[in-house]
Specification:
This protein is an alpha/beta fold. The chain has 4 domains: 5-152, DNA polymerase, domain 1 (Orthogonal Bundle), CATH 1.10.150; 158-247, Beta Polymerase, domain 2 (2-Layer Sandwich); 255-333, 2-Layer Sandwich (Beta Polymerase, domain 3), CATH 3.30.210; 343-581, Alpha-Beta Barrel (TIM Barrel). 44% of the residues lie in helices and 13% in strands. It has 24 helices and 16 strands. Helix 1 (5-22) packs across helix 7. The longest helix has 18 residues, at 5-22. It starts with a helix and ends with a helix. Zinc ion (ZN) binds at residues 351, 353, 423, 477, 539.
Amino acid sequence: MSLSNREIADIFERCSDMLQIRGDNIHRVLSYRRAAETIRAVPRDLRVISSEGGLTDLNYIGKTIAAKIDEMLETDQLEFYERLKAEIPEGLVDIMHINGVGPKKAKLFWEQLDITTVVELQTAADAGKLAGLPGMGKKSQQKILDGIEALSRQTGRANIGDALPAAQKILDHLLELPEAQEGALAGSIRRGRETIGDVDILIAGDNAAPIMDRFVSMENVARILGHGPTKSSVELLSGLQVDVRVLEKARWGTALNYFTGSLAHNVKMRGIALEQGLSLNEHALSPVDENKTIIESAEKILCDSEEKVYETLGLQYVPPELREDSGEIEVAREGRLPELITRADIVADLHMHSTWSDGKNTIREMVDACIARGHQYMVITDHSRSLGIANGLSIERLLAQAEEVRQLNAEMGDVIQILAGTEMDIKADGEMDYPDEILAQMDFVIASLHSGLGQKRKQVTQRLLNAIQNPYVDMIGHPSARQFPNREAVDADWDAVLAAAKEQDTILEINANPLRLDLKPELARLAKDMGVPLAINTDAHRIAHLDLMPYGLTNARRGWVEARHVVNTWTFERFSRWLKSRP
Ligand code: DGT
Ligand code: CA
Ligand code: CA
Ligand code: ZN
């Protein structure tokens, strides 16, 4: 990995913003901002310019800034920026860019209300807390709320939960044409990343013009960014950018492989091809000479499937979710890739809400919906008493609900097993929201963080450990509490959390809601390697959310997770035996 021009410019821009929030000299603030602008306009790689000794010839780049550029080129980071981040919460930069805020107010909200993220600002504004601050009134508070709404419509990367349905619709729309022989999503959306820069679509066909025309004339197109013979790009009204490429069916495999990426995976693939005397690109595998030059007279190998690309290179087929150059090529070479979990493996959902707390459907409606989705068992897990905003259940209501659930379960017979659970809050002080003697009466207990998310590492870690070590807690819900677009994960000692979960045999959730996807793939991978039990749940607050399961599965697959690592693939018999083995 090495920083690109754009990334270096972005770091300078953020330094400039943080200096401004801190109240530094405006000339200093501007020097970093101008450097960022210069770098964005430079058409050549900074690495090359630096090696020629030409950095200081650029506008607004003097010795100090040039030294910082060199530092980033060499170390991939900037000490100055790291120090600023330690002093000024980075979320303030996003806050200051909201229409109606600016650096002074960002600092005010931080100092007066401890607000460090856009989500926290929105919550405070919703609750009317900004209006009482010096220089603020109802009007300026409303302006900020409007600004936050505008921001959410135009942030850089789209959430996969928004991008995937939109992309699938376009693909289906194009595949209606007889000229479109085959089609697929490629790029980050096919790899299942949590956020998507732009959507890449490939279509196989010999006559591209009608496909291009149909694409650029869709009714949800805001702007046509390019309309070529075989490639077009548009921006949708939602702000999402979409690229469509048309190619011959005979080259489908190399093209799909190339445009699926990731870039790092492609680079490794090309290296493997070269070892075998072949040059790999989107068009073909071409024999090369000792100088790695393509032998024009030699016959090229065309691949009409991705399977053929991998097979030709002597590799096991790599599922798109694994293509991040995180060891998959090496393992594929040995033929030892995992058999990733699929939807067919899932037989239950262990986390969902009802009208008893903040869900939109009754228990009965959720039960019918789970039956329709083929689940063998399910757990009703409404919020606990301290979560007032979510209508959390008092002890009396919790016990009454459990009785209702058990009655319904008896009525349902063998059709589905319904368990009485709770999603109990881990309170900010580290206490559990219900006493042990109440938890002992529940079939299944989730403990989750919902507040105090900005606490220091030691404190947050201790709260998670308290929950894991509580004998009645069966699962930690959305363990890091991250939320897209801008609520960061809590800062916890994950080694300690995973070790404790392993020790106590406590499940860690992979929350399938595309705004959470928590555990994230890297942590899910560590967890399953350590033997921590996992579960993939929707956390549904309405029936439609029960269909978010595939996002959780994709996230789990990105963490190399197999069915055997996931508790809600077990039969009900096995699951209830596991529950009985616990207090
Ligand atoms: P995104 O759009 O930022 O979420 O991420 P991607 O991975 O979809 O990236 P994108 O849209 O720029 O390009 C799609 C794929 O095309 C990328 O994953 C790999 C491939 N690709 C793009 N540019 C290059 C390149 O210069 N060399 C190679 N080998 N592959 C590239
Ligand atoms: Ca893309
Ligand atoms: Ca693209
Ligand atoms: Zn929940």
